Amino acid sequence: MTPRDASEPNGSRWSDLDRPPLNITALRRGLVRQGGLWSEVDVVQRTGSTNSDLVARAAKGEVTEGAVLVAEEQTAGRGRLDRQWTAPPRSGLFFSVLLTPSEVPVARWGWLPLLTGVAVATGLSRAAGVDTALKWPNDLLVTVGGAERKAGGILAERAGDDGVVIGVGINVSLKDDELPVPTAGSLALAGAVSTDRDPLLRGVLRSLEDLYGKWRAAGGDPGPCGLHEAYAAGCATLGRVVRAELPGDRAVVGEAVAVDGDGRLVLATEEGVQEPVGAGDIVHLRPA
């Protein structure tokens, strides 16, 4: 799909006055600047997956680091473990960014989704006034009616040998009857002071630019740049008893006691073993 300005005439764009289209001109003016990370910002009305689109464009050499692709609606958005991510048009923020951290050893690129999670949570807390937390590795949690709900997620994909495309999906204005599953939430349902997507997107991308710059300057070491500490402080999984559903139909139950230097979740099991988990689905069994 060819990117086009979200302000182009379209008979359906004003169908929901509570969900105005993104202002592409203002977004570019606020984000694309000399010496900054963000090199271009494009908005499409509708696409299958911004991640798939941006990976394809990177493979063709059409974009450079800092390219941002935003969709007003995604019809085939994907979360972790190939889960579907769907939402009504203009009800959330669905975007992908291209990063090429050439100074960082590839072994440390696994921190990028966690870094993005910290940046998204920080940006949204500032711009929306909502307390957010991270479920390992990078689900965004908000509190709705006293219960934790998932309001967003992050997916990272390699783009060639030297790049990573990070996709972010955030439920902004979804109402109760629009939630895809009962455990989902949105910023609006969590009492956000603003659901205006333009400042929310700018806030998230500026937060990501800042933290990514510090991480890259530290050669990807999560300690000196403060990433490790920030992630642990914002991770709602730590201190809880969880079940890790691992590849190969294996499951491990234990207390989440740490996030190690490689970004893995360390579980202390009843057998007295500390087991690092690098991939899998985490289920919170008891509150911290």
Automatic annotation (TrEMBL):
PROSITE patterns (alphabetical): BPL_LPL_CATALYTIC (PS51733)
InterPro entries attached to this UniProt entry: aa-tRNA-synth_II/BPL/LPL, Biotin_CoA_COase_ligase, BPL_C, BPL_LPL_catalytic
MF (Gene Ontology): biotin--[biotin carboxyl-carrier protein] ligase activity
Residues in BPL/LPL catalytic domain copies: 27-216
Enzyme Commission code: 6.3.4.15
Keyword Lipoprotein recorded: no
Keyword Ligase part of the UniProt annotation: yes
Gene3D superfamilies reported for this sequence: 2.30.30.100, Bira Bifunctional Protein, Domain 2
GO cellular component: cytoplasm
Pfam families on file: BPL_C, BPL_LplA_LipB
Superkingdom of the organism of origin: Bacteria
Keywords: Biotin, Ligase
EC top class named in words: ligase
NCBIfam families according to UniProt: birA_ligase
Listed name of the protein: biotin--[biotin carboxyl-carrier protein] ligase
Source organism of this protein record: Streptomyces cahuitamycinicus
Lineage: Bacteria, Bacillati, Actinomycetota, Actinomycetes, Kitasatosporales
